[in-house]
């Protein structure tokens, strides 16, 4: 009996430990991630940058909570978010990752375009089709199409842009059968279905939300190996690395430069989430300069949320909190970053760029 009692107690202990330390709960921990050197991630005509210094992208780590790790929220720069807050209307983590991969691909595309535009070099945009972001429940292609598919043809017709695609569909009749070709993970599929009346606009449609899917062709050829990293926030740093390589300019001058921010094709730098955690990650990896989006806050938004702060303000507060010597530099456009880097002296000198001031929104 004592032996049986011992095994029962041991089993109960294992069960308790499982529920405390391993059992997932519907919450996620957001905390400082990594600062990744871009030299081994970006190649131009098969070559990698070898100049002194680094450009680094920064990340936020997201991990599913357990009852034990739920307590991490009380640690500095560890935040707890619910599944609803993280996923929104997305059904599961797989779809979330698919969306993040799309954002990364789009970020790579925009970064290359912004860099080549700034360098005055030509490039070609190759339209691939429409990227499926979601499928409505009442769509006759529900269960066929899924997030991440690219529709390449409708009724054996190819289109030059998404506007042509939409115009063709909306000129057809509700209930009319269309044939589509679409790609998923490199494989082409075909399907047929009837068009529906879109609830939002009342127009004829397939029943999907969509965005452009295109690639950019350049000479010299640029390849960005983003790996498993997702999201759009590496855009600014990607564009700086690409620009410095295609123009053969040593912009970093031996400095370790980290940063974050989305990049538009026109060079506009946009805000991102978790910038305070990215400041922590950059500081741990020895960055001496950190580029932060200096997003302008809409007065109406500031009026409704008086405590709302720009990315730059949050980054400055985090830097002051950890007492880092890393300089936080506000960036609105790609050209802002280039101009700042062009005035840097080599790291071997004693010159230190003047700390930029907070540009508070009215």
UniProtKB/TrEMBL annotation:
<dbReference type="InterPro" id="IPR027065">
    <property type="entry name" value="Lon_Prtase"/>
</dbReference>
<dbReference type="GO" id="GO:0005524">
    <property type="term" value="F:ATP binding"/>
</dbReference>
<dbReference type="InterPro" id="IPR001478">
    <property type="entry name" value="PDZ"/>
</dbReference>
<keyword id="KW-1133">Transmembrane helix</keyword>
<keyword id="KW-0812">Transmembrane</keyword>
<dbReference type="InterPro" id="IPR008269">
    <property type="entry name" value="Lon_proteolytic"/>
</dbReference>
<feature type="active site">
    <location>
        <position position="278"/>
    </location>
</feature>
<feature type="active site">
    <location>
        <position position="233"/>
    </location>
</feature>
<protein>
    <recommendedName>
        <fullName>endopeptidase La</fullName>
        <ecNumber>3.4.21.53</ecNumber>
    </recommendedName>
</protein>
<dbReference type="GO" id="GO:0004176">
    <property type="term" value="F:ATP-dependent peptidase activity"/>
</dbReference>
<dbReference type="InterPro" id="IPR020568">
    <property type="entry name" value="Ribosomal_Su5_D2-typ_SF"/>
</dbReference>
<keyword id="KW-0378">Hydrolase</keyword>
<comment type="similarity">
    <text>Belongs to the peptidase S16 family.</text>
</comment>
<dbReference type="InterPro" id="IPR014721">
    <property type="entry name" value="Ribsml_uS5_D2-typ_fold_subgr"/>
</dbReference>
<dbReference type="GO" id="GO:0004252">
    <property type="term" value="F:serine-type endopeptidase activity"/>
</dbReference>
<dbReference type="InterPro" id="IPR036034">
    <property type="entry name" value="PDZ_sf"/>
</dbReference>
<dbReference type="GO" id="GO:0006508">
    <property type="term" value="P:proteolysis"/>
</dbReference>
<keyword id="KW-0720">Serine protease</keyword>
<dbReference type="Pfam" id="PF05362">
    <property type="entry name" value="Lon_C"/>
</dbReference>
<keyword id="KW-0645">Protease</keyword>
<dbReference type="GO" id="GO:0030163">
    <property type="term" value="P:protein catabolic process"/>
</dbReference>
<feature type="transmembrane region" description="Helical">
    <location>
        <begin position="6"/>
        <end position="22"/>
    </location>
</feature>
<feature type="domain" description="Lon proteolytic">
    <location>
        <begin position="228"/>
        <end position="344"/>
    </location>
</feature>
<dbReference type="Pfam" id="PF13180">
    <property type="entry name" value="PDZ_2"/>
</dbReference>
<keyword id="KW-0472">Membrane</keyword>
